[in-house]
Amino acid sequence: MAFSYTVELSEKRLQKKVSAMMPMEASKYYLTVTLSEPEIELIEGQNEMGVFTHIEVVVPGIKRAEIKGSGRTKITGSLSYESERCEFFFKNPVIEMLEIDKVSERYIPVVKSIVQFIAQKILAKLPVYRLKDEKLKHKLAKSMLQSITVKDKKLLLKLSLL
């Protein structure tokens, strides 16, 4: 007979993990983009997570004054579990929103490509959550994870107990 058990991870708990990953910074050509102050949102029905962050853009000045712009961006991605590493990752990131003040429209495509780079090459490579060996519930989750869903602002890990 199989029993099931669900481990709940709150947005607050995941928020703490994602906040510890920031700030993230990358440069391309002449622009430097920094993402910081993340706020996460678990998206029900899609098993996705949204990450709203503060964004700062710096364009160095050579013949003109340095340009500094700031704003917000939202990156949405799916949540996936890698059983070999016992870790959950933010995968398939997509930029849903990008708002920046004091930066010319001509720089926006480059800024967007840098944000996408940060999301795909940095954020998606760091675990959002790691199951810990010392906890019995987590040991069970490592070996028998059935599904990952988002409901009522919580990440639900459904386990099958044989």
Topology, pairings included?
Elements: E1 3-10, H1 11-21, E2 24-28, E3 31-43, E4 48-59, E5 67-82, E6 87-101, H2 108-122, E7 127-130, H3 136-144, E8 145-151, E9 154-161
Antiparallel strand pairs: 1-9, 2-3, 3-4, 4-5, 5-6, 6-7, 8-9
How many structurally independent domains?
A: 1
Order of secondary-structure elements: EHEEEEEHEHEE
Oligomer: single chain
Q: The CATH topology, please? A: Bactericidal permeability-increasing protein, domain 1
Number of DSSP helical runs: 3
**CATH level 1 name:** Alpha Beta
Estimated radius of gyration: 19 Å
The strands making up the biggest β-sheet line up spatially as: 2-3-4-5-6-7
Name of the CATH homologous superfamily: Uncharacterised protein PF07273 family, DUF1439
Brief synopsis:
The protein has helices spanning 11-21, 108-122, 136-144; strands at 3-10, 24-28, 31-43, 48-59, 67-82, 87-101, 127-130, 145-151, 154-161. It is of the alpha+beta class.
Can you put this structure into words, describing what you see?
The model has no long low-confidence stretch (mean pLDDT 85). Helices cover 22% and strands 54% of the residues. The chain is elongated and about 70 Å long. It contains 3 helices and 9 strands; from the N terminus they run E-H-E-E-E-E-E-H-E-H-E-E. Strands 2-3-4-5-6-7 form a 6-stranded antiparallel β-sheet. A 3-stranded antiparallel β-sheet has the order 1-9-8. It starts with a strand and ends with a strand. The chain has a single domain (11-130), classed as Uncharacterised protein PF07273 family, DUF1439 (Bactericidal permeability-increasing protein, domain 1). 23% of the residues are buried. It has 162 residues and is an alpha+beta fold.
